[in-house]
């Protein structure tokens, strides 16, 4: 089950604490919450994951957004059921001299990540002239919270084998809380993107010292 809730509204506020150490270019923040919906489609309970990592005003805005959510409740035995799901709220952060403007991008219902694992980054991808791009990952989440049959694609249709293996080996080690209907775990789908680009601060670590 993958439920998408798209809002046409934008939220703007100042986040000086978040902008202090961030680059000038806009960037995205994705906030996960554990949310329960009643049989009428309204939110009955919610919890922001790692709430302490965010400024209070930002947390308040996320909580208000989630509290106002409405979904079409899933049916079970011909009757509306109660859904428990992860909710990912994505915001575009645009830094400025006075703080940062925040605009809502997307609200997505999906299995909640409990453990995020990234395997060792391939040396072949950490060279100055190595492949750069975005890896889009899609995988089914079974009732035990494991990623099954991950599929990797890129925006330009080209993906080196080392990048594919890195993404697949990483997402295969993730652990999820499966979505539930009336307390019963159901299979779902999870999607994410990884941007691959060599880090100039680490490039020299992988070079032959004799050639520096």
Describe this protein's structure.
With 212 residues, this protein is mainly β. It has two domains: 1-110, no CATH class; 112-212, TolA/TonB C-terminal domain (2-Layer Sandwich). Helix content is 15%, strand content 41%. It is built from four helices and 14 strands. The protein has helices spanning 16-19, 56-67, 161-171, 200-203; strands at 3-5, 27-37, 43-48, 75-76, 79-80, 83-96, 99-110, 112-115, 133-141, 147-154, 175-177, 180-181, 184-185, 188-196. Strands 1, 2, 3, 6, 7, 12 and 13 form a seven-stranded antiparallel beta sheet that branches. Strands 10-9-14 form a three-stranded antiparallel beta sheet, covered by helices on one side. Strands 4-5 form a two-stranded antiparallel ribbon. Strand 12 and strand 13 form a beta hairpin. 21% of the residues are buried.
Short structural description:
The chain is mostly beta strands and 212 residues long. It contains 4 helices and 14 strands. A hairpin with a 2-residue loop joins strand 12 and strand 13.
